[in-house]
Design brief:
The structure holds two protein chains of two kinds.
Chain A lengths: L1 H26 L6 H9 L12 H11 L11 H12 L9 E5 L19 H5 L18 H5 L5 E4 L2 E4 L9 H5 L5 E5 L4 E3 L7 H7 L9 H5 L5 E4 L2 E4 L9 H5 L5 E3 H12 L1
Antiparallel strand pairs in A: 1-4, 2-3, 5-8, 6-7
Chain B lengths: L2 H14 L10 H6 L4 H30 L8 H23 L1 H7 L10 H12 L4 H29 L11 H16 L8
Classes of the chains: A alpha+beta, B mainly alpha.
Amino acid sequence: MNIINAILVLGIMGALFGLVLAIASKVFHVETDPRQDEILSVLPGANCGGCGFPGCGGYAAAIVEGTAPINSCAAGGAECVEKIAAIMGIEAGEVEKCVALVRCSGGPNASKKYEYLGIHDCLSASRMPGGGPLECSYGCVGLGSCVAACKFDAISVTDGLAHVDHEKCVGCLACIDACPKNVIIKVPYAADITVACSSTDKGAVLRKYCNIGCIGCKICEKACPHDAIHVVDNLAVIDYSKCVSCGICVQKCPRKLIVDSRLNKEHDVEVSA
Amino acid sequence: MSFTSILSIALGAILVENFILVKFLGICPFMGVSKKMDTALGMGLAVVFVMGLASVFTWLVNEYLLIPLGLAYMQTVAYILVIAALVQFVEMFLQKTVPALYEALGIYLPLITTNCAVLGVALLNTQYGYNFIESVVYGITGGLGFTVAIVLFASVRERLEFSEYPEAFEGFPIALVSAGLISLAFMGFSGLRVW
C-alpha cells in the first residue's frame, strides 16, 4: 500500500511541478531577438572584449538593441562586419584594420639598473623602485604581461622585448590595457614604417642608457618629403595619414631606429628561399 | 526559540561546520567558479539565495506532505524534485520581472540547481530536526558560509597565478592543495560555540 502512496505522491508532485513550469515558461516568456543568436554565430567567439562589451554575447545584444556600431569587432574584421550587416539589413561601413605596436626597441640595447627576480609580471616589476629594472623609464619591461593578455598568440618576448606579429594580431588591443608602461600603441595594419621608441627623454640622457632609442635629432623630420614625421618631446612620431611609406627616414635615421617592415619581409623571404 | 540558538546555528553554518571546507559539500562550483573574485562573489550570492529558498520549500514539503503520509524515506528524491523545479521557476520569474538580478545571478542559477550543498542543507535540516525558522536560518547562513569559503579561495587562487610552483602542479592540483590548506585552517573553528 505504501509503495502506491509513494508513487502517487511523487508522481503527482512531478506532474504538478512540470505543469507549473510549463505555465511559467509561457507566462514569463521573454522575447529575444532571433538576430542576436545569428550575430553571435558569425562573431569570432574569442570573447576578447576589444569591442568594449563583455564578450561576444554582450556585443551581439548591443548590436540588436542598436546601441553599438556593427564594425566594433576588430577580431572578425571586414568579413564579420559584412555578415552582421547582412543580418541587420544595413550597409557595412569601411573598417580599417589596426594592429598593436610595441614602441620600444630596447631589449639588449637598453642597460639595466638591476636584475629583477620578483614576480614574473610587468605590473609588479614596474612598481619596483625607480619604475622597474630598466634604466629607461619608458621601455618594455619584457616580462610578458601582454603575452598573457593576448588571446591570439600574436605577441612574443625575445631578449626582454615584446614583439607583435602583425599577421596574427587582430587589433583587439587587450595588450594595450595589460601593459603598465603604456609602451604598446595602435597603428594601422597598412603602416610599413614604424618608430619603435616611446622615450621622451633628451638625446643626451637617452644615449647613456639605450643604444637605439630616439634621440630627437630631427634628421627624419627634415628628410621627410611628405611632412609625415615630426619630433614631439624628443621623440619622432609618424602621422600615418600623410606617410606614403617611401622609406627615406628609414635610410636617414642615424640610430637605425625607424624600421621598414617590408624590408624585413623581403629579408625573411630570402632567408627561407 | 531563543536568539542564542539562532546565533549558534548561524555561527555553526558559517564557520564551524562550513559546507565546503568542513562538510565537503558543493566542491564542484567551489573549484569551477573560483578563478576570479567577482564571479566567486556572484556564485556565492546565488547559493545564499537558492539555499534559503530550498530550506523554506523542502521544510514545507517534508512537514505537510511527506511526514503525514509516512513517506519520510522518500525525502532525497522529493527534495531533488522540489529544488530543481524551484530553481527553474525562480530563474524564469527573475528573467521576466527583475532582469537586473537575473543578469547578476543568471549564469550561476542553473549551475546550482541540484548542487549537493543545496540538497545537503535540505537533508540536514530534517536530520537535525530544525523547525521552520531554524531551517531558514541554517539555509541562508549555510549559503553565507559557502560565500565566505569561495571568496577566500578565489583570493588565494588569484595570488596563485603569480606564484611559482612545480609544473606538475599547474591548474587543478595546486588549487586542490590550497583548498586542503584552507580547510585545515577552518578546522581551527571546531569547538567554537555560543552558549
